[in-house]
Design a protein that fits this description.
Oligomer: single chain
Distance between the termini: 22 Å
Order of helices and strands: HHHEEHHHEEHEHEEH
Radius of gyration: 23 Å
Number of domains: 2
Structural class: mainly alpha
Number of strands: 7
Helix content: 40-55%
Number of helices: 9
CATH topology of the largest domain: CBS-domain
CATH superfamily of the largest domain: CBS-domain
Length: about 240
């Protein structure tokens, strides 16, 4: 198999996968399928950009000169390697947990002392801690703690709060979490961490629960600081 044939084979695998999963009919063009997959949070922008470029190359090969049934023009070897790697990422999308690994979540309650919460944040190099009672209450963030320190000290020069519950008044809309099941893909996790959507806000964490409900105890908390690992895993 020459490089052009290998390239076309990988491209066709991608197109068939996108059509099977995101096409409502066989009339959609390849670029339309890519845009639909992006809207469905299945493709990050770098992968979509690569697919658009590969589509142009596919057209050049398909409409070029053939000799004995084989295209004369051939892509570079590294181009074939790239599209084959991208095909594997798209048709067998890794989950976020497969990339990041399992990790028991650190969770606090309203009664947890601020001292203990700070020890958890520092010891585990975290920037967020979910606060739970029977269900999720709010996300304790380092930014929230900074707001509390600044406002409380300004009030009377002392830090009066003692428990996590005392920090509830300092919660802001920016201290939000997105809830998902354990099968969330790495691409979808990247989307939530990078696309603010209509709200204009980005989650500080993705909280994994059995059914993606805030009423359930977390299985894993994905901190925004883990985003680079997710992005790197989808590199090709």
């Amino acid at each position: 198999m020459n490089r052009a044939t290998a390239f076309i084979a990988a491209f066709n695998d991608i197109e068939q996968y996108l059509r099977r999963n995101y096409g409502s009919r066989n009339a959609e063009g390849f670029r339309t399928l890519v845009r639909i997959a992006m809207r469905e949070q299945a493709l990050p922008q770098p992968q979509a950009d690569a697919l658009f470029a590969f589509a142009d190359l596919r057209n050049a090969i398909s409409h070029g000169t053939y000799h004995e049934g084989r295209p004369i023009a051939e892509p570079f070897e590294h181009t074939v390697t790239e599209i084959e790697a991208l095909r594997d990422l798209i048709t067998q999308p890794p989950t976020a947990l497969a990339v990041l690994g399992e990790r028991s979540p650190d969770v606090v309650t309203l009664a947890t002392t601020i001292h203990d919460a700070l020890k958890l944040l520092h010891g585990e190099s975290l920037s967020v801690l979910p606060v739970y009672a029977k269900s999720f209450i709010f996300l304790l963030t380092t930014d929230m703690i900074v707001r509390w320190v600044a406002e409380d000290l300004e009030d009377d020069g002392r830090l009066d709060a003692h428990s996590v519950g005392d920090l509830a008044p300092y919660v802001s809309p920016a201290d939000m979490a997105y809830f998902s099941r354990a099968d969330i893909s790495a691409a979808t996790a990247i989307h939530h961490f990078t696309d603010p959507g209509h709200s204009g806000l980005l989650p500080r964490a993705i909280i994994i629960t059995p059914k993606g409900s805030p009423k359930q105890y977390p299985l894993r908390v994905i901190d925004r600081s883990e985003l680079p690992k997710l992005v790197q895993a989808l590199d090709f």
